[in-house]
Amino acid sequence: LAFQYDNLVMEEAAQIMEVEAFIPMVLQNPDTATGKSRLKRVLLIGDHHQLPPVVKNLAFQKYSRLDQSLFARLVRLGVPATQLDFQGRARPAIANLYRWRYTSLGDLPGVLAPDGPHALAVPGFRHDFQLVHVADPQGVGESTPLPHYVQNLAEAEFVVATYMYMRLTGIPASRISIITTYNGQRDLLSDVVDRRCGSDARYGPPRAIATTDKFQGQQNDYILLSLVRTRAVGHLRDVRRLVVSLSRARLGLYVFCDAPLFCGCTELRPAFSQLEARPTKLQLLTAERAPPARRLDAPVDDGAVTEVEDLVSMGKLVARMHSEAEAADAADAGAGR
User: Fold this and answer.
1) What pLDDT is recorded for position 261?
2) Contacts of 44 (CB under 8 A, 6+ apart)
3) Distance (Å, rounded) from C-alpha 87 to C-alpha 204?
4) pLDDT for position 32
5) Can you give the pLDDT at residue 336?
6) Pairing relation of β-strands 283-284 and 306-307?
7) What's the pLDDT at 3?
8) pLDDT at residue number 172
9) Rounded CA gap, 274 and 128, in Å?
10) What is the C-alpha to C-alpha distance for residues 207 and 189, in angstroms, rounded to an integer?
11) In 142-282, where does DSSP find H-type helix?
12) For residues 254 and 278, what is the distance between their CA atoms, to the nearest angstrom?
């Protein structure tokens, strides 16, 4: 390929297999004058507190440690490293959910600016982040139609209903992403979105529907997170996956799960103790519309808050708002004739 370079920069180096990290180091031919490689400097950028490389063969992963990146190995061996100790993505309150995993993580001025987007509330929501307990009306909870293919229909319906509510408040679809911890739930969420939103231009699809593992390295203003499990915590017990899940949102994060199950997990307590400090029933301000105008620190009248009891209540709320939006559209069309 005739590559010639002295410096090599690897982004997301903590998610690259060790053997893969060496490939770009040997891509160029030796220097014709010296017979040696021109490479003088390698810069690895990553976060070993987030997910490691994906190795599907369990034996290779656990016993050969192929899921350890070169980045993580060097950190573990004590090689001097520079730690970036400020974050500029999330509101400070959202960053607190994963700040405990880092030695010293501060906030850049941009997320603290009193006149910036981080100072404004999420339109239609009382809280900028919230844990939402989902009780299945049918009592089913999680299901596994295929081995390791975990789904939760009630949770998927609740997440999609919340997405539809956000769209009805005027939040652009491009600013909303839905993530989950299981491939089966991702596929189910895609199916429910297609069924509920696909034929109506008022909704459309969100920017992304993805698993936490695939969404690592990405972000969005508003994240709807589905944790799926109702019988056991599953692989979210790996706090690296928890950190990735909670750190994707800039302005709003809503976590849908079986709250008692996840709040009772010792490994997750530093984050879930903060989440459960707020009500586990979704609290909405149905009269608010985007773009945001209310400041995050502004007092909220309790009488204006709608607390969603369960999935059925959320469905009825969205149906009512949908009907109101259709009636308003019809009235506008009639007035324009």
Assistant:
1) 97
2) 10, 13, 21, 70, 71, 74
3) 32
4) 84
5) 66
6) antiparallel
7) 81
8) 97
9) 13
10) 13
11) 153-168, 183-197, 212-215, 239-246, 259-263, 269-275
12) 12
Residue 65 CA, distance from chain mean position: 27
Spatial distance between the Cα atoms of 18 and 295, rounded to a whole number of angstroms: 46
3-state secondary structure 93-160: HHHHHHHCCCCCCEECHHHHCCCCHHHECCCCECCCEEEEECCCCCCCCCEEEECCEEECHHHHHHHH
Q: Which of 235, 288, 289, 269 is nearest to 54 (CA)?
A: 235
Whether omega before 291 lies within 30 degrees of 0, making that bond cis, reads: yes
25 in the Ramachandran plot: left (φ > 0), alpha (ψ -120 to 50) or beta?
A: alpha
Distances (CA, A) of 154 to 136, 142, 150, 267: 5, 9, 13, 26
C-alpha gyration radius of the chain? 23
- What pLDDT is stored for residue 94 in this prediction? 98
**CA-closest candidate to residue 162, choices 248, 260, 255, 230:** 255
Per-residue CA distances from 43 to 21, 31, 39, 82 (Å): 11, 21, 11, 11
- Angle subtended by helix axes 311-335 and 153-168, to nearest 10: 30
pLDDT of 263 reads: 97
In whole angstroms, give the CA distance from residue 227 to residue 246: 11
pLDDT > 90 in the chain, percent: 82
Residue 121 φ then ψ, to 5°: -75, 165
Instruction: Decide if 219 contacts 249 (C-beta within 8 A).
Output: yes
Q: Which positions of the chain have pLDDT values less than 50? A: none
Distance of CA 95 to the CA centre of its chain: 12
Residues 6+ positions from 334 with CB-CB distance below 8 Å:
none
Q: How far apart are the first and last CA of the chain?
A: 64
Cα separation, 76 vs 51, in Å, equals 15
User: Rounded distance, CA 267 to CA 179, Å?
Assistant: 21
Q: Please check whether residue 107 is in contact with residue 92, taking contact to mean a CB–CB distance below 8 angstroms.
A: yes
Q: Which two tokens stand for residue 122?
A: 């999420």
Chain centroid to Cα 203, Å, comes to: 20
Burial (CB < 10 A; 0-12, 13-18, 19+), residue 121, is: buried
Rounded Cα distance, 40 and 297, in Å: 51
